[in-house]
Amino acid sequence: MKKIPMWRRHDRILGPDPKADVKAELRFHIDCKTEDLIARGWLPEAARTEAERQFGNLLAVEQAGERLGEHMERRRRVHEYYAESVQDARYTLRTLRNNPTFATIAILVLAFGAGLNAAVFSVVNTMLLRPLPFPQSHQLVWFTGGKSFDAKVRAAGGLSAETYTVDVLREFQRSNRSFQDVTAFQTFYNSLQYKLTSPGEPRQLDAVEVAGNFFPTLGVTPVLGRNFTNEETLKGGRPAAMLSYYFWKTQFGADPNIVGKTIDISTSPAAVNGPVTIVGVLPASFDFGAVFAPGKKVDLFVPAVMDFWKTWGNTLAVVGRLKPGVTAAQAQDEADLLFPELKLQHKDWFYDYASDLTTLKDHVAGKLQRSLLVLWSAVGLILLIVSVNLSNLQLSRAAARSKEFAMRRALGASRGRIVRQLLTESLILSLSGAVVGFAIAWAIVYYLAHQNSIALPLLTTIHLDVAALSWTLVIAIAVGILFGLAPALRISGANIQEVIKDNAAGLAAGRSHERFRSALVISELALACLLMVGAGLLLRSFLRVLDVDLGFDPSHAAAMQTDLPPATNNDQLVQRANFLKSEIDRVAALPGVQSVGIADMLPLDRNREWGLQSVGRYHAKDADGGALVYLATPGYLEAMGMRLVAGRDFAWSDSPEKQPVLIINQAAARREWPGEDPIGKLAYATGKIPDRIIGIIDDVHESSLEQNSSPEIYVPMTQNNDVEGATLIVRSRIDPAGLAGSVLATLRSLNPSQPATALRPLRSLVDHSVSLRRFLVLLVSIFATLGALLAALGIYGVISYSVTQKTQEIGVRMALGASARRVQRDVLAKTLRLAMVGIALGTVGSLGAARLIASLLFATSPWDPIAFAAMATSLTAIALLSGYFPARRASKIQPMDALRSN
Amino acid sequence: MEKTRLELFRGTLDILILKSLIWGPLHGYAITSLIRRQSGDALLVEEGTLYPALWRLESKGFMEAEWGLSENNRKAKYYSLTSAGRRYLRAESKTWEAYAQAVAKVLGATQPPAEETP
C-alpha cells in the first residue's frame, strides 16, 4: 500500500461519505477481477460481465455496506463528541481551579438564584399546583353560604354567614343529585371545650367535631382502628374519638395498641364527661389545620352529634364529594335551584342558603394565588439578574482570555468548538450552583415548614420533592445556556487577527464589548428596580396595616383559655358569674397585673353573628340585621384596651333578673341609630326582651386588619349563658409571658381541673392575621436586597474592568496634568450615567408592573412616590458605592507605571 | 472455472480474513486471492459474503481501514489488523484447531470408544 498523494486526497473534502466509499471499494474489486480475467485471455467486454456475474447480488451487498458504514460513522461521531466533552470538562475544571474567586462567586450567585427558585417553587407547587392530599381531590367541593347577601353584609356576618344548620345539611344531603356524599364539621370549635382529665394532668385539647361520614368522604382512612360507627354519632351513643397522628405520637408515644383504650375527657358545657374510647388514629398525611384552619393543630376528632347541634344556628362547614363526571359548575347550577326550593319548604330557615360552590382546592389556595404569583415572578426576576450577572462575569473573564481563544481559532479550532467549550464551562458552573442551590432550598423549605407563626394553608406540608429537584436542574441548565451563550458567541465571533494584534485598549472590538457589558448592567439595574419598587410598595402597605387602629391594644396583654362552670338556669348563671368574678379578682391581684377580663371570643379570631334591631325603627324585610356577638365580663374592655366612647362598662351587678344590657360598637350605632345617641335606647338582640344599650365603644377590627369594622354587640356573661368558651385576658405592666405560671396557679387554686394551656400574647392574634402579608413582604424584601446586591456586583465588575482597560489612557491623561480627583470624578460620572439609564428604564417598567400588584396593596397607591423615590435613591447610592472602589483605584494610577507597562 | 467449493462454517471466514492480514495491509480483492492461493484453490470466498464480513470486522474494531494506492495506482481501501484483531485471531485459531482435531479424531476412529468407567 502506498500513501495517497496530496492532490488525490480532496474527494472527501466535504466530510466522510460512507455510501461513496462502499461503491468505490466494490468497483475496485470488480475492476481487479476483470483485469485478472483479461490477463487470462478473456475479451474485455466478456471479462467485465463475468466479473459482475461472479460477484452475485451487487446491490444487496452495497446496501448492507451502506448501512454498516452509516452506523460506524454515527458511532465514531458520538465517540468523538464524548471525547471532546471530556476534554472540555477537564479543561474547564483546570481553568476554574486557577481562578477560584471567579468560580466561587459564580457558583454562589447561581446557587442563590436556583435555591430561591426551588424553594418558592416548592411553596407554589404545594399550594397551587399539586392537588390536595386527598384521593380524587378534584371532586371535593367547599360550600360558602350567603351568596344572596351583598358583599358588605356577607363580610359583616363573619363565619355565621358562611355556615349551615344541621337541618340545611340534612335536607341538601337528601335532595341533591350531584354529590356522592356531603359532609360537615363544626366550625365553632370552642363551643364545647374539650379537656383531657386523665391520663396525665388536665390539659386543654384542640378537638374538632366532624360528621360521621367526614373521613370517608374526604377519602382519609385511619392508620389504626376504624372510623366512627353510626351508633357513635347519635345522641347517647358510646363516646368515641379519633386521634390525629401528631397527638398520637406526642401524647401516647405512638402506642400501637391505643385503639380500644379510653381516655377521660370532660367538656363544658357538659356533653361528654368521662371515658371516651379511642377508635382510630388518622394518618400523618392528614393535617386538618393545613387544609381547613391554617395554623391550627388538632389533637382529636369526635363525632358531631347532629341531634345536639340541631337546635343551634349556622355552625357547620360543609364539604361535598362530587359524583364522577359531575363538574363543580354543574353542582353550582343544581345548588342555585335547590337551595331556594328547600327554603320554600322550610319557612323556619334563617335565609335561603344560596351558596357558592368552589373546589376545595380553590377555597384553600384561591386567596393565595396572586401573592404566590408575585413571589414567583420576583424569584424569576432574581434568576434573570443572576444570569445577566453571570454573563457579565463570564464576559469579563473571556475578554481577558480573548487572546487564548484567538490563538486556538488560528490553530484550527472551529467557532462552534469554542462556543461548545464555553458552554461546557457555563454548564459545569451552573450544575455546581444547582447542587449548592438545592442545599439552600432545602434549608429555606425546612425553615418555612416549621414556622408556626405563618398561618398559610398547607405550609406545614411543604417539602422538596422530585418536582422541585427537576425544577432546580432545569433552571440551572437554562441559566447555564443563557449566560454562557451570549458571551460565547461574542468572543468566538471576534476578529482573530485584530485580537492577536490588539495589545492596546480602545480598539473597536473592545469598545463594542464594553457597550454590550454596559447594556447588561443597565438591564440588571432595571430588573433590580422592579424588585425594589415591588418590595417598597408591599413594605409600605405592610407598615400601613400595622399602623391600623385596631380598636384594642395588643401589647402587654395575653390570653389564656379557662374553664366555665355549667349554667343552664339563672341560679347557675349567678354561680358562674361569682366564680368568674373570683377568678378575675385573684388574677388581678397578682403583682404586675393591671386589669383582667373574660370573653368568649377574641377579635381577629373566630366570630359568630346574632341579630340586632333597634326598637321603634322601621326595618326593611331584607335589611341587614346581623351583628357579631361577644360575651364578656366586666373589665374585659379595659383589659383589651378597647375604648368606651360613651356610657359605662358592664358591672357585676348586671344580674340575670335585671334589665338585659348591651354594649355596641360605633358601626352598630351608625346602622341602628343614625344621627341619634343610642345610650339608653332599646334593641332586640339576645331574646324576646329588648336589651338596653349602656355603652358604645370605638370600632374594633374584628375579622381582619384590612377590612372595615362590622356592627358588634357585647353581651354581659353575667346575664347570658350562651357562651362560646371562655378566654381570660390579662393586661400587665410587665411582659405577660412571665406571668404564665402564676396565672395558671391562681386559676388552679380555684378550679383544680383548670387545664394547662399557654398564655398567648394578644400580639399573636395580630401576627396571625397579618402573617400572609408579613410572609410576602419578608420574601420580596429579601429578593429585592439580593437583586440590588447582584446589580452592585455587576456595576463593580463593569467599571472595574473598564478602568483596567484604560489604565494607559488614564496614565496619559494624568501625565498631561489631570488630577487624581478629576480621574475619580470621571469614573464616578460614568457609573452614575449607567445607573441613571438603568433606573430610568426600571422606573418606567415598574410603573407598569406596579399595577399588577395593586390588589395586594393596602392604603398605598401603586405609584406611591415614596416607594419610587426610596428605590431611586438607594439604587443610586448602591451604584455609586460600587463605582467608588474602581474610581479610587483609577485615581491611584501612577502615570509612569501605566505608560511603561506596555 | 467450476471448482469444488468448500462451504465455510460461520466464523471460519472471519479468522481466515484476519489471518490473511497478518503479513500486512491488504484490500478486499487481495484478501480473496490470498485465501484462494494459500488453500491451493480449495477455498473460494464469495464476494457477497466477503465484504459484509470485512465491514463487520471493521466495525467490531478488529481491523482498521485506510484508503491507499494499489499496485496499479488506483485508490483502494486497505484493511489492517488492530491489536484487538490480533488477540481475537490468536484465541480463535486455538479454538478452531482444537475443534478440527476433535472432529478428525472422531472421523478417523477405527473402533467404538471404550466403556466409560464411572
Summary tags:
heterodimer, A: 902 residues, alpha+beta, 8-stranded mixed sheet, B: 118 residues, Arc Repressor Mutant, subunit A, 3-stranded antiparallel sheet, 4 helices, 3 strands, 50% helix, elongated, disordered N terminus
Please explain how this structure is put together.
The complex is a heterodimer of chains A (902) and B (118). In chain A, the strands form 4 sheets. In chain A, strands 3, 4, 5, 6, 7, 8, 9 and 10 form an 8-stranded mixed sheet that branches. In chain A, strands 15, 16, 17, 18, 19, 20, 21 and 22 form an 8-stranded mixed sheet that branches. Chain A has 4 domains: 11-95; 146-354, no CATH class; 370-547 and 771-900, no CATH class; 557-761, no CATH class. The radius of gyration of chain A is 39 Å and the shape is elongated. In chain A, α4 (100-129) packs antiparallel against α13. In chain A, a hairpin with a 4-residue loop joins β3 and β4 (203-205). Chain A is built from 28 helices and 24 strands. Helix content of chain A is 53%, strand content 13%. With 902 residues, chain A is an alpha+beta fold. Helix content of chain B is 50%, strand content 14%. Chain B has helices at residues 12-20, 28-38, 47-60, 83-107; strands spanning 26-27, 63-69, 75-81. A 3-stranded antiparallel sheet of chain B has the order 1-3-2. In chain B, β2 and β3 form a beta hairpin. In chain B, α1 packs across α4. Chain B starts with 11 loop residues before the first helix and ends in an 11-residue tail after the last helix. In chain B, 25% of the residues are buried. Classes of the chains: A alpha+beta (902), B alpha+beta (118).
